[in-house]
Design a protein that fits this description.
By secondary structure, the chain is α+β, with helices and mostly antiparallel strands. Among the domains are: 159 residues, DNA Polymerase III, Chain A, domain 2 (Roll), CATH 3.10.150; 83 residues, no CATH class. Helices cover 27% and strands 30% of the residues. The N terminus is likely disordered.
Amino acid sequence: MSNNFKTQSTVTAGSLALTLATVVTKNEDQKHAALFFNGTVVHPQILARCFVVLADITATRYFQYVPESLRDPILSAQGDRLRAEVFSACNGVYARVDLLQEGFKGKIGFGTTNVDIGPELRSALIDIKPQYDFKLTIGTDGLTSTHREKMAENVMSMGEKIHERPVAMPDRWVRALGNTAEIHHQMEHVMTLKGMAAKGFLTTLPPATSVSKEGWLTPTPTGAKLMTHRTGTAVFISGLHRLSALKRIMMHVSEIKFYMLKDMTPGPLLVELTLPGARVTVSLTEKAYVGYSGVGALLEALSSEQTNDDAELIRQSLAYDAIIDEEKLRNTWGISRTRVENALALLAVSGKIGYDVAEKAYFHRELPENENRILKDNPRLVGAKKLINTVVSTADNKWTVASKDANYLVTYNLQAPITEGTCTCTWYLENLNRKGPCKHLLAVKLKLQAETTRTLHEVKK
């Protein structure tokens, strides 16, 4: 993400200005003069505190706690909502705020950028009161808003001014965006807390500085408690302290939904909070010391030449959709459901696609192109391509792969998901495909795909 900020974020008495970076929009001619929103915020305190939650998360290293510098949230305008996304400093927590059309009086545009939020501005956002009138304009010349209290004096002292400096978005965020999208796509709803039970759970969250705790979150009449074993609709969580920032929006939350991977084994957890005019999504890696950028969830999609071709077709149809209509894509391009899903997963690698569990749909964001990123961010795929010529068939669906003076036995059927394959290497034995396939499994798949493609070409001749 480019951080070409035209001005700096400022706070003065009665006004707020958050600067946006260069915007990628539908119309490239509007790249430097895009307008995301112009109107009124219905729930100003909710908007302000949601941004503070993002600021808290992106400035925190939850594994062996260390406060870090803030990073710029990615901001996407999608016609009927604004989405702001960040990762924690340790990359083990993903957070997204969806500001829905019902929370605004005005028209939301289309585009992707990032917004400059620093520590002093974060403090100013905390002081926003619910009774403020809040006028808001979001564009490349700045996100500006004016507010005034109806019942009390402005909390900002006259003439006070705060300047924020732009901070670069870490390159690993792009890799992590792809991994989170694929992982979220595999999740399903398990447990819900409503009303006072939701608020009660948030009050019990330990601070970010706490020692990491894990176990099964089990619903109770007043919230949820951590248990050593699963009962009923409990969900597994590692690092309960990684949800601590959510306390800031506790008073506004009406419902919390918890999601796990479909096989219900301990692993990543996603938490979705409902607020007036907004949703907040926070997802955690399976362990506090694991970062999303290293998960490798998209390696199977990356290893298919057909998927690369389909992704390029589908990319032409995307227009900052808040909800990508997969059926429409199938009909438009005449390809199967599986091919559409694989293509969307591949587009996530470059940060172009996210997944919303509430909508059960992908959404489109656009980041600058980087042709070398896919290989750079997926060294296992690079390693697999180097091993293709060492793959030897030993029996039906059984192969040996020579790597570093050792032969590894791979079991894999091209017609089945690669997650059903096995290998005798240390990576597979330690991870069992939970972090994506090992390079030996990928090498076998690439070899089989190449042979299948060559056979089809010979038949056509």
